[in-house]
Amino acid sequence: MISYNFCTNLEVIKEDNEEFKTHLQMDEVMKKLFTIKNPRPIIDLLNAIYGDNISYDAKLSYHDKEIINKAEESSKLIRFYADMYITVVDGNNIYEYALEFQTVFDKEIAIRVFRYSFERAVKLADYSKSKECIKLKMPEPYIILIEEEEGVKDRIKLEIEFSKNVGFTYDIKVLRYWTYGLEQLYKENMYLLYPLQIFNLRKKMKQISNSNRTKEFKESQMLQLYEELKVLLEKTLKAIDKAYDDGKIDIDDYDTMNTVIENLNSYFLNMYGKYRNFDKEVKALNGLLRVTCERERAS
Question: What is the pTM of this model?
Answer without folding.
Answer: 0.79
